[in-house]
Amino acid sequence: METNAGVPDSELDASYKVALELAHSAGQVIKEAFQRKDKGLSTKSTSADLVTVTDRKVEDMAFTLLREKFPHHSFIGEETAAAGVRSELTDNPTWMIDPIDGTTNFVHGFPFVCISIALCVKKQVEIGIIHNPILNETYTARRGQGAYLNGERIQTGSQDDLSKSLVLTEFGAHREEAFLSFKFKNMRSVINKAHGIRCTGSAALALCQLAKGGADAYFEFGIHCWDIAAGDLIAREAGAFTMDTQGGPVDLMSRRIIGAATEKLARELSSTIDHTELERD
Ligand code: LIP
Q1: C-alpha 92 chain-centroid distance
Q2: Same-domain status, 38 and 167
Q3: What is the pLDDT of residues 60-80, one digit of tens each?
Q4: How many structural domains is the chain composed of?
Q5: Of all atoms in ligand 1, which is nearest to the CA of residue 102?
Q6: pLDDT band for position 6 (50/70/90)?
Q7: Is 38 noted as a catalytic residue in this protein?
Q8: From the CB of 278, is ligand 1 less than 6 Å away?
Q9: CA proximity to 109, closest of 173, 36, 53
């Protein structure tokens, strides 16, 4: 049987099974490395844009397995992109992988660390798996089938008032003065209204917190498609409303997103913050 995404259900079932096994085996590698002092650290675009030997090892491991199982699929990965390969999202089934989301957390021993795996078909996310091997949490979703944490169904909260909300956002790795001022201005606008702001250090896990009702809203500028593809599906399948920061559907390659427990809250947050366009993935 074909899904309306044009890929047979059997292929999506097989993809889900392989991705879940991959998340757990990669999780073992991440967990072992998390306990080591020497993380094999280097930097990328800025002194705060970190990468470790484990990020590269896990991405290699993931792509080798997925290419062998699904040779006709396409692949987008954080470290592949960092090595200069252009991230191109087409209608072809495309895996989007962040081998370690929360690399800075990983380096510092802060336990918000995960692998994020998404499969897009016709530019729509069909499968999202986020596994945090340190806290032993596996978030999973398939489009139209709900969201789960360690096999138990999860549901977002119902908050629709920013003045009663806990909001997640991130500083990110960029350190240009203008971008930092933009981020601080938005944080100031939000904190003037909300109960609080938290930074998890992982966009993927921020979306999972929203999904399970641990936070009411999340917004970020500067993320990449591999940071949010799986989390966006998990949050929506748990009942969250996600959108482009200025409304309309999330554009995975646009590097900005708002998610909230309710559409009303997402729109209030959108009208509270300033917006900027970033170079696309
Ligand atoms: C990080 C994100 C974080 C975001 C950073 C970065 P990494 O991913 O998840 O939330 O603010 O810009 O993209 O580098 O740890 O995979």
Answers
A1: 20
A2: no
A3: 999 999 999 999 999 999 989
A4: 2
A5: 15
A6: confident
A7: no
A8: no
A9: 36
